[in-house]
């Protein structure tokens, strides 16, 4: 399966109609396409978490709803999106997740109807457990271990003994859930699981860095602890050595799947003599007979162990800082390229009078994009006036035609959904055309060469109505008969579109009177319509052929 499914497109269209931009972004980030969520959708959701008027519970509930889908692709991408927002979004998002009684309940999830469904369902269950454990850790300590301050003056290095003994097991549980993902290089076969593995890799580096600093602080205080505290501290240190071994295996997988070697830290274990020294000290506190190390030997052993773990911590901190810098640089480059694309798109849209349709920024927010008009760009001598040197539209110029203009197909009844301005213009133009027909039916028109009627038994005077202000432009002197006088008229208000009057025979009281070729009427701006322009005029009838 590749590409967005029809269900994805329908769901996105529904969210567009309801105006829910967040739901639309979540839907687009969790499509059936077998690839990681697109960065532009993730960035938009992160931006939403930093806006105070955004409903964070609604965002989280939308993601939870996507995990109820039967497709492993949708569920996996919903988990990835949640994890990404927990890492880079506003802290109030993970605060809300930590306040919930239940999070992801995917322990029994299984997709039997898709390719790779069985294998990916296993990783979905493991991945959801880690996200649940990450939120639980925040509930217990009110801090994200991957974002806390590190270093000599960091949180874990300055924590007191009692709090340290309670905090380190919480980090162990979260790290255990992460390492239980257990993905082999042969199992990372698609973009979805690769995206999840990258997020887990980044969390493992930052989480173990905090874990390592807590253990260093624990060892420095070990020989000054009470018996019960020493017992708990020794158990924590043994588990720490076991998790260091599992983490080294996890990092080997990361190296095999193509992660940069510079981003993978080096693990340096403490000498085994430290564990012996810790066990002997606890035995002495319990009253057991054992070989007690001298103070100097114990100090040297502790110093070597702390130095080894400090080197490991520095390596992890350097890798974490390196990844952060690479992410910032990548984000900066993407922002520069996007601004350049917008600049080019703005120049093109200013020249062609249309927006840049290829910009990704218009993907999430509903934008009003007018349709491209099929009228070709004319020169400065055309009826539209053309463009000046700066690309601005010139005022229209009136062009005199001696022949009947070619009539375009009538499109007044077709309203373009994406071109509201053109639709309104066509509608108003149709009504004005009907109004002009009503006005002209009450006037006597002559063609070149005819004699002007001066009277007789069949001649009847016509009273000009107030609608003569809508009469067309006067004929040029060359086309007007010498005896004919131009019909007085008022200059119409300019309109923004040209309008031509079709040739139709008008039948009055005296019978059919041929209508001469009418000239196109050009307006610069909208005019005021008279009251009820379609009222029938006594003594005149209209008939359209």
TrEMBL record:
Start and end residues of each ENTH domain: 14-145
Biased composition (Polar residues): 455-470
GO BP term (any one): synaptic vesicle budding from presynaptic endocytic zone membrane
Chain spans, region Disordered: 448-470
Highest taxon above the source species: Eukaryota
UniProt keywords, alphabetically: Acetylation, Cell membrane, Coated pit, Cytoplasmic vesicle, Endocytosis, Golgi apparatus, Isopeptide bond, Membrane, Nucleus, Phosphoprotein, Ubl conjugation
Gene Ontology MF term list: 1-phosphatidylinositol binding; clathrin heavy chain binding; phosphatidylinositol-4,5-bisphosphate binding; SNARE binding
Entry annotated with the keyword ATP-binding: no
Record's subcellular location: Cell membrane; Cytoplasmic vesicle, Clathrin-coated vesicle; Golgi apparatus; Membrane, Clathrin-coated pit
CDD domains linked to this entry: ANTH_N_AP180
GO cellular component: clathrin-coated pit; clathrin-coated vesicle; extrinsic component of presynaptic endocytic zone membrane; Golgi apparatus; nucleus; synaptic vesicle
Family from the record: Belongs to the PICALM/SNAP91 family.
Assembly and oligomerization: Binds to clathrin; involves primarily the C-terminal sequences, but the full-length protein is required for full binding capacity. Binds phosphatidylinositol 4,5- bisphosphate. Interacts with PIMREG; this interaction may change the subcellular location into the nucleus. Interacts with AP2A1 (via its alpha-appendage domain). Interacts (via N-terminus) with VAMP2; VAMP3; VAMP7 and VAMP8 (Via N-terminus). Interacts with LC3/MAP1LC3A.
Function noted in UniProt: Cytoplasmic adapter protein that plays a critical role in clathrin-mediated endocytosis which is important in processes such as internalization of cell receptors, synaptic transmission or removal of apoptotic cells. Recruits AP-2 and attaches clathrin triskelions to the cytoplasmic side of plasma membrane leading to clathrin-coated vesicles (CCVs) assembly. Furthermore, regulates clathrin-coated vesicle size and maturation by directly sensing and driving membrane curvature.
Protein's recorded name: Phosphatidylinositol-binding clathrin assembly protein
Organism: Sinocyclocheilus grahami
């Amino acid at each position: 399966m590749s590409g967005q499914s029809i269900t994805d497109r329908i769901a996105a269209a529904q969210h567009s109609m309801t105006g829910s931009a967040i739901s639309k972004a979540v839907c687009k980030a969790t499509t059936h396409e077998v690839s990681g969520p697109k960065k532009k959708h993730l960035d938009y959701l992160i931006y939403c978490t930093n806006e105070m008027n955004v409903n964070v519970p609604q965002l989280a509930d939308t993601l939870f709803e996507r995990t109820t889908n039967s497709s492993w692709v949708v569920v996996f991408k919903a988990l990835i999106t949640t994890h990404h927002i927990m890492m880079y979004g506003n802290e109030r998002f993970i605060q809300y997740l930590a306040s919930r009684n239940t999070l992801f309940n995917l322990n029994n999830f299984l997709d039997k109807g898709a390719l790779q469904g069985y294998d990916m369902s296993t990783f979905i269950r493991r991945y959801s457990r880690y996200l649940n454990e990450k939120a639980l850790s925040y509930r217990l300590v009110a801090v994200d271990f991957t974002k806390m301050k590190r270093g000599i003056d960091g949180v874990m290095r300055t924590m007191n003994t009692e709090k340290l003994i309670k905090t380190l097991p919480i980090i162990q549980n979260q790290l255990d859930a992460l390492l239980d993902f257990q993905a082999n290089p042969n199992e990372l076969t698609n973009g979805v699981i690769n995206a999840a593995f990258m997020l887990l890799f980044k969390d493992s580096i930052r989480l173990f860095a905090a874990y390592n600093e807590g253990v260093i602080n624990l060892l420095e205080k070990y020989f000054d602890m009470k018996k019960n505290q020493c017992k708990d501290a020794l158990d924590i240190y043994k588990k720490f050595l076991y998790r260091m071994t599992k983490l080294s295996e996890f990092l080997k997988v990361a190296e095999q799947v193509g992660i940069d070697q510079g981003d993978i830290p080096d693990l340096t274990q403490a000498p085994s003599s430290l564990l012996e020294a810790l066990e002997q000290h606890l035995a002495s506190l319990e009253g057991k007979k054992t070989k007690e190390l001298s103070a100097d030997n114990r100090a040297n052993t502790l110093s070597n162990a702390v130095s080894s773990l400090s080197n490991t911590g520095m390596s992890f901190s350097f890798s974490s800082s390196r990844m952060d810098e690479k992410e910032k640089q990548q984000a900066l480059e993407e922002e520069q390229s996007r601004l350049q694309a917008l600049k080019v798109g703005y120049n093109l849209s200013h020249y062609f009078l249309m927006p840049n349709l290829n910009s990704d920024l218009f993907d999430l927010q509903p934008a009003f994009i007018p349709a491209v008009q099929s009228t070709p760009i004319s020169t400065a001598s055309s009826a539209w006036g053309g463009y000046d040197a700066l690309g601005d539209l010139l005022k229209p110029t009136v062009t005199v035609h001696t022949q009947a203009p070619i009539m375009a197909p009538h499109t007044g009844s077709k309203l373009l959904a994406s071109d509201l301005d053109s639709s309104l213009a066509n509608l108003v133009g149709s009504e004005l055309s009907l109004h002009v027909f009503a006005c002209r039916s009450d006037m006597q028109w002559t063609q070149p060469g005819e004699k002007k009627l001066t009277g007789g038994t069949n001649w009847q005077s016509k009273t000009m109505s107030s609608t003569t202000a809508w009469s067309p432009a006067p004929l040029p002197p060359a086309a007007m008969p010498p005896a004919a006088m131009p019909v007085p008229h008022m200059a119409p208000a300019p309109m923004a579109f040209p309008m031509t009057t079709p040739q139709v025979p008008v039948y009055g009281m005296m019978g059919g009177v041929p209508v001469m070729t009418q000239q196109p009427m050009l307006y610069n701006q909208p005019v005021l319509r008279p009251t009820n322009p379609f009222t029938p005029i006594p003594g005149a009838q209209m008939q359209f052929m």
